[in-house]
Amino acid sequence: MSNDIYLKRTILKETVQSRRLPEGSRNLRVFLPPGYNELLSYPVVYCQDGEDFFNFGRIATTATRLILDEGLEPFLIVGVDVDKSVRSEEYTPDGSRYADYITFFAEELVPFIEERFSVRQDPQYRILAGDSLGGTVSLHLAVSYPGLFNRVISMSGAFYPVSQRILAQASDLSGLHMYMIVGLQENAFETDRGVFDFVQLNRDTVAILKQKGASVFYEEKDGKHQWGFWQQEVPQALLHFIEVE
C-alpha cells in the first residue's frame, strides 16, 4: 500500500474538565481507527506524554498500518498531554501533583472518554502506555486502580527506589499484565533525580512484579533513552495486547 493511506487519520482534539487538576482541565488527542463505527466497541490505549507519542512515537500512523495491513483489531488511542515543567511532579509517586493526577486519570478522564466514544469498559481492553516516567505512572495507576487497568506498556520505565518500595508492599499483582522494554545503552542516564542505570532499575522491578504474581513480558535491546528507540518498539508493544482479527 502507498504510505499516503496511513496518513489519512482521524485525530480529534478534546479537553477534559477536572476538579482535581490545579489548572482545571487537560488537553487530549484521540485517534479513531479506520472505519470507526459507534455501533461497535473498541479497545483503547491511553498514552502518557500524549503529544510525544503522537509526534515522536508516530503511534497513530503505526496503528493505522497495523489495522489495515496486519489485521489488528481496530482500537482507539487517547494521548494525554503533559506540561513538561511539572511532568515529574505528576508522574513520580512522591511528586506533589501525583495524587491529583492519578485520581484525575481514573475518575475523570476515563469516564469522559467512555461517555463520548464507543470503547469497551473492561480492564483487559484498557491499555496504559508510557515511556520513562510515563511507564512508571502507568504501572502505579494499574496497581492503584486494578478494577480499571491491568495491562501496561512500559518503555524504559523510570522505576526509582520509591516506585520499587511501593510495588514491594503490594499484596497480590496476579491480575497485572506488563509489557516492558529497556535499552542496553541506558545504563547511566542522567535524570532530574541523578544518574541511574535504567537496565538495573527495570531488572529489579521485573523481579518484584514476578514475585507478586504479575505476568511480565520483558526485553532488553540495543537502544538509548529516547524516542528514536521507543518509536521502533511501538508496533510490537501494540501487537502484544491487541489481537489480530
Helix and strand topology:
Blueprint: H1 4-7, E1 10-17, E2 25-32, E3 44-47, H2 50-55, H3 59-69, E4 76-80, H4 87-91, H5 98-116, E5 126-131, H6 133-144, E6 151-155, H7 161-169, E7 177-183, E8 189-191, E9 194-196, H8 198-211, E10 215-221, H9 227-241
Parallel strand pairs: 3-4, 3-5, 5-6, 6-7, 7-10
Antiparallel strand pairs: 1-2, 2-4, 8-9
Task: Offer a quick outline of the entry.
The protein is an alpha/beta fold and 245 residues long. 39% of the residues lie in helices and 23% in strands.
Describe this structure in words.
With 245 residues, this protein is an alpha/beta fold. It has a single domain (4-241), classed as 3-Layer(aba) Sandwich (Rossmann fold). It is 39% helix and 23% strand. It contains 9 helices and 10 strands. The protein has an 8-stranded mixed β-sheet, sandwiched between helices. The protein has a two-stranded antiparallel sheet with strand order 8-9. A hairpin with a 7-residue loop joins strand 1 and strand 2 (25-32). It is globular and about 45 Å long. The model has no long low-confidence stretch (mean pLDDT 95).
